[in-house]
Amino acid sequence: MTADGGKGQIAIRATLLGPDPCRTLEAELEQRDREVTLRVFIRPSGAGVCIQVIGGFAYDAVIERLPRGRHSLRVVHTYPSTGWPTRVVLTETVDVR
Q1: Which end of the chain is more exposed for a tag (fewer CB within 10 A), N or C?
Q2: pLDDT of 43-92, one tens digit each?
Q3: What would you measure as the largest C-alpha separation in the chain, in angstroms?
Q4: Rounded distance, CA 12 to CA 80, Å?
């Protein structure tokens, strides 16, 4: 997982594992002052029959319109209806130009 600051933005590149490959990713962004939390949810896609094998999901996220300076970034992976615990997968200070 990586997070890089840029001009007015933070770019995140990550991988999330799921209980099967029949899932979709959704995200929510929470921002308070210079604290930014990205929550990524892996939800069932609604596909009929799905094989039970761990699925890997790569994603890129760009958080835009951030003021210049240091930001505290936290990325959280959430697995609704899987029995898997929510995990904080990244906590980092990122400089935005």
Answers
A1: C
A2: 988 767 788 888 899 999 999 999 999 999 999 999 998 899 999 999 99
A3: 48
A4: 22
Side chain identity at 60, as an amino acid letter?
Answer: D
CA–CA gap between residue 20 and residue 54 (Å, rounded): 5
Report the distance separating Cα 64 and Cα 96, nearest Å: 10
Who contacts 96 (Cβ-Cβ below 8 Å, separation ≥6)?
5, 6, 7, 8, 9, 10, 66, 67, 68, 69, 70, 71
Q: Which amino acid is at 14?
A: A
Q: What is the pTM of this model?
A: 0.91
Contact between 68 and 42 under an 8 Å Cβ cutoff? The reply is: no
Ranges of each domain in the chain:
2-96
